[in-house]
Amino acid sequence: MLLKKNIPFKYVFGKIKYEVLLVAVYTLVVVLLHDRFNLKHMAIPLSVPMIMGTVISLLLAFRSNQAYDRWWEARTVWGAIVNDSRTFSRQVLSFIDHAYDGEEVGHFRERMVRRQIAWCYALGQSLRGLDGREGLDRHIPKREISHVCRYTNIPMALLELHARDLNYALKQGWINEYQQVQLDQTLSRLCDAMGKCERIKNTVFPATYSLYIHFALNFFILLLPFALIEYFGFVEVPMVVAIAASFLLIEKMAIHLQDPFDNKPTDTPMTAISRNIERDLKQMLNDHHLPETVNAEYKFYVM
After folding, report:
1. Is Metal-binding among the key words of this record (predicted)?
2. Which of 13, 35, 187, 278 has CA atoms 20 to 30 A from the CA of 166?
3. Global pTM?
4. Which long-range contacts (CB under 8 A, 24 or more apart) does 69-77 make?
Protein backbone atom coordinates (compact mmCIF):
# COMPACT_ATOMS: atom_id res chain seq x y z
CA MET A 1 0.00 0.00 0.00
CA LEU A 2 1.38 3.39 -0.98
CA LEU A 3 1.81 5.85 1.88
CA LYS A 4 0.88 9.51 1.81
CA LYS A 5 4.46 10.76 2.05
CA ASN A 6 7.80 10.13 0.39
CA ILE A 7 6.42 8.79 -2.90
CA PRO A 8 9.38 9.43 -5.23
CA PHE A 9 8.90 11.00 -8.62
CA LYS A 10 11.06 8.22 -10.03
CA TYR A 11 8.47 5.63 -8.98
CA VAL A 12 5.58 7.57 -10.52
CA PHE A 13 7.39 8.43 -13.76
CA GLY A 14 8.84 4.94 -13.99
CA LYS A 15 5.37 3.54 -14.67
CA ILE A 16 5.08 5.42 -17.96
CA LYS A 17 8.64 6.36 -18.91
CA TYR A 18 8.72 4.30 -22.11
CA GLU A 19 5.28 5.47 -23.21
CA VAL A 20 6.20 9.12 -22.55
CA LEU A 21 9.44 8.72 -24.51
CA LEU A 22 7.56 7.30 -27.49
CA VAL A 23 4.99 10.11 -27.33
CA ALA A 24 7.77 12.74 -27.22
CA VAL A 25 9.57 11.24 -30.22
CA TYR A 26 6.36 10.82 -32.18
CA THR A 27 5.23 14.40 -31.50
CA LEU A 28 8.64 15.77 -32.41
CA VAL A 29 8.58 13.90 -35.73
CA VAL A 30 5.15 15.36 -36.52
CA VAL A 31 6.35 18.88 -35.71
CA LEU A 32 9.52 18.50 -37.80
CA LEU A 33 7.60 17.17 -40.80
CA HIS A 34 5.11 20.01 -40.55
CA ASP A 35 7.81 22.64 -40.16
CA ARG A 36 10.14 21.28 -42.85
CA PHE A 37 7.61 20.58 -45.59
CA ASN A 38 4.96 23.11 -44.52
CA LEU A 39 2.25 20.45 -44.67
CA LYS A 40 -0.87 22.46 -43.86
CA HIS A 41 -3.11 19.51 -44.60
CA MET A 42 -1.62 17.63 -41.63
CA ALA A 43 -3.66 19.69 -39.18
CA ILE A 44 -7.05 18.46 -37.98
CA PRO A 45 -9.77 20.34 -36.08
CA LEU A 46 -9.10 20.60 -32.36
CA SER A 47 -12.66 19.49 -31.65
CA VAL A 48 -11.88 15.92 -32.77
CA PRO A 49 -9.41 15.03 -29.98
CA MET A 50 -11.42 17.16 -27.54
CA ILE A 51 -14.49 14.96 -28.04
CA MET A 52 -12.39 11.80 -27.82
CA GLY A 53 -10.63 13.10 -24.72
CA THR A 54 -13.95 13.75 -23.00
CA VAL A 55 -15.23 10.26 -23.74
CA ILE A 56 -11.95 8.63 -22.67
CA SER A 57 -11.95 10.66 -19.44
CA LEU A 58 -15.38 9.28 -18.56
CA LEU A 59 -14.30 5.73 -19.37
CA LEU A 60 -11.11 6.06 -17.33
CA ALA A 61 -13.04 7.51 -14.40
CA PHE A 62 -15.47 4.57 -14.48
CA ARG A 63 -12.63 2.06 -14.72
CA SER A 64 -10.72 3.71 -11.88
CA ASN A 65 -13.80 3.53 -9.65
CA GLN A 66 -14.28 -0.16 -10.44
CA ALA A 67 -10.60 -0.89 -9.74
CA TYR A 68 -10.70 1.02 -6.45
CA ASP A 69 -13.82 -0.92 -5.42
CA ARG A 70 -11.86 -4.17 -5.83
CA TRP A 71 -8.94 -2.78 -3.80
CA TRP A 72 -11.24 -1.46 -1.07
CA GLU A 73 -13.15 -4.74 -0.85
CA ALA A 74 -9.85 -6.57 -0.36
CA ARG A 75 -8.88 -4.13 2.40
CA THR A 76 -12.28 -4.52 4.05
CA VAL A 77 -11.96 -8.31 4.05
CA TRP A 78 -8.56 -8.08 5.71
CA GLY A 79 -10.01 -5.72 8.30
CA ALA A 80 -12.51 -8.47 9.12
CA ILE A 81 -9.64 -10.97 9.35
CA VAL A 82 -7.99 -8.76 11.97
CA ASN A 83 -11.17 -8.66 14.04
CA ASP A 84 -11.91 -12.38 13.76
CA SER A 85 -8.31 -13.34 14.56
CA ARG A 86 -8.49 -11.35 17.77
CA THR A 87 -11.92 -12.77 18.54
CA PHE A 88 -10.79 -16.35 17.96
CA SER A 89 -7.75 -15.97 20.20
CA ARG A 90 -9.78 -14.26 22.90
CA GLN A 91 -12.34 -17.06 22.81
CA VAL A 92 -9.67 -19.76 23.02
CA LEU A 93 -7.95 -18.09 25.97
CA SER A 94 -11.16 -17.27 27.84
CA PHE A 95 -13.20 -20.42 27.21
CA ILE A 96 -10.31 -22.74 28.09
CA ASP A 97 -9.37 -20.86 31.24
CA HIS A 98 -6.99 -21.60 34.06
CA ALA A 99 -9.58 -23.75 35.81
CA TYR A 100 -8.16 -26.57 33.73
CA ASP A 101 -4.71 -26.96 35.19
CA GLY A 102 -2.13 -28.92 33.38
CA GLU A 103 0.66 -28.47 30.91
CA GLU A 104 -1.38 -29.98 28.07
CA VAL A 105 -4.07 -27.31 28.33
CA GLY A 106 -1.50 -24.53 28.34
CA HIS A 107 0.21 -25.92 25.26
CA PHE A 108 -3.15 -26.38 23.57
CA ARG A 109 -4.16 -22.73 24.07
CA GLU A 110 -0.82 -21.44 22.89
CA ARG A 111 -0.77 -23.77 19.89
CA MET A 112 -4.17 -22.54 18.70
CA VAL A 113 -3.22 -18.88 18.96
CA ARG A 114 0.14 -19.31 17.25
CA ARG A 115 -1.49 -21.31 14.48
CA GLN A 116 -3.85 -18.41 13.87
CA ILE A 117 -0.83 -16.14 13.42
CA ALA A 118 0.61 -18.62 10.95
CA TRP A 119 -2.71 -18.70 9.08
CA CYS A 120 -2.65 -14.94 8.49
CA TYR A 121 0.87 -15.02 7.07
CA ALA A 122 0.15 -18.12 4.97
CA LEU A 123 -2.98 -16.55 3.49
CA GLY A 124 -1.08 -13.40 2.49
CA GLN A 125 1.70 -15.42 0.90
CA SER A 126 -0.73 -17.65 -0.99
CA LEU A 127 -2.74 -14.71 -2.36
CA ARG A 128 0.46 -13.18 -3.72
CA GLY A 129 1.36 -16.40 -5.49
CA LEU A 130 4.25 -17.09 -3.10
CA ASP A 131 5.04 -20.16 -1.02
CA GLY A 132 2.49 -20.30 1.80
CA ARG A 133 4.80 -22.54 3.83
CA GLU A 134 7.46 -19.86 4.15
CA GLY A 135 7.93 -18.77 7.75
CA LEU A 136 5.54 -21.34 9.24
CA ASP A 137 8.33 -22.85 11.32
CA ARG A 138 8.33 -19.68 13.45
CA HIS A 139 4.77 -20.32 14.62
CA ILE A 140 3.77 -23.99 14.40
CA PRO A 141 5.60 -27.27 15.17
CA LYS A 142 7.22 -29.43 12.51
CA ARG A 143 4.55 -32.15 12.68
CA GLU A 144 1.90 -29.60 11.74
CA ILE A 145 4.09 -28.27 8.93
CA SER A 146 4.42 -31.82 7.59
CA HIS A 147 0.64 -32.14 7.67
CA VAL A 148 -0.19 -28.88 5.89
CA CYS A 149 2.49 -29.41 3.23
CA ARG A 150 0.36 -32.20 1.81
CA TYR A 151 -2.28 -29.62 0.85
CA THR A 152 -2.30 -27.27 -2.10
CA ASN A 153 -4.17 -24.66 -0.07
CA ILE A 154 -2.05 -24.09 3.06
CA PRO A 155 -4.48 -21.71 4.85
CA MET A 156 -7.32 -24.21 4.41
CA ALA A 157 -5.15 -26.93 5.96
CA LEU A 158 -4.44 -24.71 8.97
CA LEU A 159 -8.16 -24.08 9.46
CA GLU A 160 -8.72 -27.83 9.34
CA LEU A 161 -6.22 -28.29 12.17
CA HIS A 162 -8.12 -25.63 14.12
CA ALA A 163 -11.35 -27.59 13.66
CA ARG A 164 -9.72 -30.87 14.72
CA ASP A 165 -8.34 -29.28 17.87
CA LEU A 166 -11.72 -27.79 18.76
CA ASN A 167 -13.30 -31.22 18.44
CA TYR A 168 -10.55 -32.64 20.65
CA ALA A 169 -11.13 -29.92 23.26
CA LEU A 170 -14.83 -30.71 23.29
CA LYS A 171 -14.19 -34.40 23.85
CA GLN A 172 -11.74 -33.60 26.65
CA GLY A 173 -14.32 -31.41 28.34
CA TRP A 174 -12.23 -28.24 28.10
CA ILE A 175 -15.09 -26.46 26.33
CA ASN A 176 -18.81 -27.11 26.26
CA GLU A 177 -21.02 -27.46 23.21
CA TYR A 178 -22.10 -23.81 23.22
CA GLN A 179 -18.50 -22.61 23.33
CA GLN A 180 -17.59 -25.02 20.55
CA VAL A 181 -20.38 -23.54 18.39
CA GLN A 182 -19.09 -20.01 19.05
CA LEU A 183 -15.56 -20.96 18.11
CA ASP A 184 -16.74 -22.77 15.00
CA GLN A 185 -18.69 -19.71 13.89
CA THR A 186 -15.53 -17.63 14.17
CA LEU A 187 -13.67 -20.20 12.07
CA SER A 188 -16.46 -20.06 9.50
CA ARG A 189 -16.06 -16.28 9.24
CA LEU A 190 -12.32 -16.71 8.71
CA CYS A 191 -13.04 -19.29 6.02
CA ASP A 192 -15.52 -16.91 4.37
CA ALA A 193 -12.92 -14.13 4.39
CA MET A 194 -10.39 -16.45 2.75
CA GLY A 195 -12.94 -17.33 0.07
CA LYS A 196 -13.67 -13.65 -0.63
CA CYS A 197 -9.96 -12.96 -1.07
CA GLU A 198 -9.63 -15.91 -3.44
CA ARG A 199 -12.62 -14.68 -5.43
CA ILE A 200 -11.03 -11.25 -5.88
CA LYS A 201 -7.72 -12.86 -6.78
CA ASN A 202 -9.17 -15.30 -9.33
CA THR A 203 -11.75 -13.01 -10.94
CA VAL A 204 -9.94 -11.34 -13.81
CA PHE A 205 -10.85 -7.76 -14.68
CA PRO A 206 -12.58 -7.87 -18.13
CA ALA A 207 -9.73 -7.91 -20.65
CA THR A 208 -11.80 -6.59 -23.54
CA TYR A 209 -12.90 -3.56 -21.51
CA SER A 210 -9.29 -2.71 -20.68
CA LEU A 211 -8.17 -3.35 -24.25
CA TYR A 212 -10.79 -1.08 -25.82
CA ILE A 213 -9.96 1.79 -23.49
CA HIS A 214 -6.25 1.31 -24.16
CA PHE A 215 -6.75 1.40 -27.94
CA ALA A 216 -8.97 4.48 -27.70
CA LEU A 217 -6.39 6.23 -25.51
CA ASN A 218 -3.57 5.44 -27.94
CA PHE A 219 -5.65 6.74 -30.87
CA PHE A 220 -6.37 9.94 -28.94
CA ILE A 221 -2.66 10.48 -28.29
CA LEU A 222 -1.87 9.82 -31.98
CA LEU A 223 -4.35 12.50 -33.07
CA LEU A 224 -3.40 15.10 -30.48
CA PRO A 225 -0.21 16.45 -32.17
CA PHE A 226 -2.09 17.07 -35.44
CA ALA A 227 -4.73 19.11 -33.59
CA LEU A 228 -2.23 21.35 -31.78
CA ILE A 229 0.34 21.81 -34.53
CA GLU A 230 -1.26 24.93 -36.00
CA TYR A 231 -1.41 26.69 -32.64
CA PHE A 232 1.82 25.89 -30.79
CA GLY A 233 4.51 24.59 -33.14
CA PHE A 234 7.45 23.13 -31.26
CA VAL A 235 5.88 24.08 -27.94
CA GLU A 236 3.32 21.35 -28.51
CA VAL A 237 5.92 18.66 -27.74
CA PRO A 238 5.91 19.24 -23.94
CA MET A 239 2.17 19.97 -24.04
CA VAL A 240 1.30 16.68 -25.73
CA VAL A 241 3.68 14.82 -23.41
CA ALA A 242 2.02 16.38 -20.35
CA ILE A 243 -1.52 15.60 -21.56
CA ALA A 244 -0.59 12.05 -22.56
CA ALA A 245 1.22 11.47 -19.25
CA SER A 246 -1.89 12.50 -17.32
CA PHE A 247 -4.10 10.02 -19.15
CA LEU A 248 -1.50 7.25 -19.04
CA LEU A 249 -0.98 7.65 -15.28
CA ILE A 250 -4.71 7.34 -14.62
CA GLU A 251 -4.81 4.19 -16.73
CA LYS A 252 -1.79 2.72 -14.91
CA MET A 253 -3.34 3.56 -11.54
CA ALA A 254 -6.47 1.62 -12.45
CA ILE A 255 -4.40 -1.34 -13.70
CA HIS A 256 -2.50 -1.58 -10.41
CA LEU A 257 -5.54 -1.10 -8.16
CA GLN A 258 -7.57 -3.79 -9.93
CA ASP A 259 -5.19 -6.50 -8.63
CA PRO A 260 -4.85 -5.95 -4.85
CA PHE A 261 -2.95 -9.24 -4.33
CA ASP A 262 -0.31 -8.88 -7.04
CA ASN A 263 2.82 -8.44 -4.85
CA LYS A 264 3.30 -4.77 -5.79
CA PRO A 265 3.61 -1.58 -3.72
CA THR A 266 -0.08 -0.85 -4.45
CA ASP A 267 -1.13 -4.16 -2.84
CA THR A 268 -3.33 -4.56 0.17
CA PRO A 269 -0.73 -4.48 3.00
CA MET A 270 -1.28 -8.09 4.07
CA THR A 271 2.18 -8.60 5.56
CA ALA A 272 1.92 -5.43 7.66
CA ILE A 273 -1.59 -6.43 8.79
CA SER A 274 -0.39 -9.94 9.68
CA ARG A 275 2.47 -8.44 11.66
CA ASN A 276 0.00 -6.35 13.67
CA ILE A 277 -2.12 -9.45 14.29
CA GLU A 278 0.97 -11.31 15.46
CA ARG A 279 1.83 -8.48 17.86
CA ASP A 280 -1.67 -8.38 19.36
CA LEU A 281 -2.04 -12.14 19.70
CA LYS A 282 1.40 -12.60 21.24
CA GLN A 283 0.61 -9.92 23.80
CA MET A 284 -2.52 -11.89 24.66
CA LEU A 285 -0.19 -14.85 25.31
CA ASN A 286 2.12 -12.67 27.41
CA ASP A 287 4.85 -13.35 24.87
CA HIS A 288 7.28 -10.44 24.82
CA HIS A 289 9.09 -11.58 21.65
CA LEU A 290 7.10 -9.27 19.42
CA PRO A 291 7.69 -8.75 15.70
CA GLU A 292 9.82 -5.80 14.73
CA THR A 293 7.96 -2.65 13.81
CA VAL A 294 8.56 -1.66 10.21
CA ASN A 295 10.06 1.80 9.99
CA ALA A 296 8.18 3.43 7.13
CA GLU A 297 9.91 6.79 7.55
CA TYR A 298 12.15 6.23 4.54
CA LYS A 299 9.77 4.00 2.57
CA PHE A 300 6.85 5.07 0.44
CA TYR A 301 4.88 1.82 0.76
CA VAL A 302 4.18 -1.10 3.06
CA MET A 303 3.47 -4.65 1.93
Report:
1. no
2. 278
3. 0.85
4. 70/200, 70/205, 70/257, 70/258, 70/259, 70/260, 71/257, 71/258, 71/260, 71/266, 71/268, 73/196, 73/200, 74/197, 74/200, 74/260, 74/261, 74/268, 75/260, 75/268, 77/193, 77/196, 77/197, 77/200
